[in-house]
Structures are given as structure tokens and as C-alpha cells.
UniProtKB/TrEMBL annotation:
Keyword presence, Nucleotide-binding: no
Organism domain of life: Bacteria
Pfam families cross-referenced by the UniProt entry: bPH_2 (PF03703)
Protein's UniProt name: YdbS-like PH domain-containing protein
Lineage of producing organism: Bacteria, Bacillati, Bacillota, Bacilli, Bacillales
Keywords assigned: Membrane, Transmembrane, Transmembrane helix
Domain YdbS-like PH residue range list: 71-147
Spans traversing the lipid bilayer: 21-37, 43-66
Length: 164
């Protein structure tokens, strides 16, 4: 089995940092708002303090540590036989999706990652679900999407020829 070689671009690191800041920032705002409603609903002050503290702690871990590991250890490759995704720093997982199992592929973007010129390449299979290669350049995602569609079409044509 081959090892994937494609890595994520540098700006994917920044895009994920922005997303985690918004996500955990929303949690911190909920915790802050909880302090104002404690008197009204007769809640103990530790509830919003825990929400605020956990939001800040999770943001620090994700922003400075987990994001770096995710960016450093994520690899992928796409060829005419399969899509290979490898991730994980401590617990490595390698996902091999054969072209024969792929039903369709698509590209997903959002406001934050599209600001950085990135997209998410998604591979859909019949039984196993959706496999994602996130934070890759939009041009690369479009190229992969078109290439996999061509390979899927070739596989379908070969299967049709064998069954006739």
C-alpha cells in the first residue's frame, strides 16, 4: 500500500484557526451572557464560568496545538485506483477508498475557507459515507473532482462492457 504524499497548504492552517476562533468565541459569548442571566433565572455563577472557561481552554488547545498537529500529519493522494487519506498524530488512520466504490464527488466551500481560496473535496460512497479532504486550494479541489468523475465513468463503462 502506498503512502499519501500531498499535504495541506500553509493558508489552510490560518483558515482553521479563524474557524476555531469563531466557534469557541461563540461559546465564550454564551458564557459571558450567562453571567447576566444568573440573577434573573437564579442560576449559580459556576455554570457560566465553566462554559466560559471551557470555551477559552478549548480554543487555546485547538488554536495553538491541535491545529498544528492536524496540519502537519494530514496527507492525501488521489490516483486512478483509489483515494487515500491519512490523518492523526498519535493514532494514525489511513483510509483507502477504491474508485469502484465511489458514487459521486463534490466540492464544499464556506465563507471562511473560501476567503482563503480553499475548499473541501468530498468523496461519497455507497455504504461507508462521506470522506473529506478539507482545506485544499479550490483549483486543486476542482481538478480532483473532475479527474475522479472521469475515472468513475471509465470504471462504469468497464463494468457495463463485462456484463453485456
Amino acid at each position: 500500500m502506498k503512502k499519501p504524499t500531498q499535504t495541506l497548504p500553509e493558508n489552510s492552517f490560518r483558515a482553521h484557526q479563524m474557524q476555531s476562533t469563531i466557534f469557541y468565541g461563540a461559546g465564550a459569548l454564551i458564557g459571558i451572557a450567562g453571567f447576566f442571566f444568573c440573577d434573573y433565572w437564579n442560576w449559580p455563577l459556576w455554570i457560566p464560568a465553566v462554559v466560559l472557561g471551557l470555551s477559552i481552554l478549548c480554543w487555546i488547545l485547538d488554536f495553538f496545538w491541535l491545529n498544528r498537529f492536524r496540519w502537519t500529519y494530514f496527507r492525501y493522494d488521489v490516483d486512478e485506483r483509489d483515494v487515500v487519506i491519512q490523518k492523526g498524530a498519535l493514532f494514525r488512520s489511513s483510509i483507502y477508498v477504491p474508485m469502484i466504490r465511489i458514487q459521486h464527488v463534490d466540492i464544499k466551500t464556506g465563507p471562511i475557507i473560501s476567503k482563503y481560496g480553499l475548499a473541501e473535496f468530498r468523496v461519497h460512497t455507497g455504504g461507508s459515507g462521506v470522506f473529506e479532504v478539507a482545506y485544499i486550494p479550490i483549483e486543486e479541489a476542482e481538478r480532483l473532482c473532475e479527474q475522479v468523475r472521469q475515472w468513475i465513468k471509465v470504471d462504469e463503462d468497464e463494468i457495463d462492457a463485462k456484463t453485456e
